[in-house]
Amino acid sequence: MIRALGAAIVSCLSWSGAGISAGRADPSTQGRDHLGYPVPPSRQGRRGLTSHHDPAVITQLKELALEQGTTQQKLIAEGLNLVFTKYGRPTIA
User: Fold this and answer.
1) What's residue 40's pLDDT?
2) Cα dist. 84→3, 48, 79 in Å?
């Protein structure tokens, strides 16, 4: 059932001209993570950082990113750089 659904999706994408890999890097040239999965070039040499917040914080961050025309990740990097500056560290985020 799942294979049939997957094949149908691939068929629709191919028929529409969308292409599955449109806008993506060729997986054969990407690095691989510790489980062997491809890692996009934008994430190579980087690590994830997770934190937990109230839902209102997340909503506000999403709204701010939309209003400013930027991404949540860029806003978080800006905030980290402000903290680094406050404590006399170089801005590296």
Assistant:
1) 92
2) 49, 18, 9
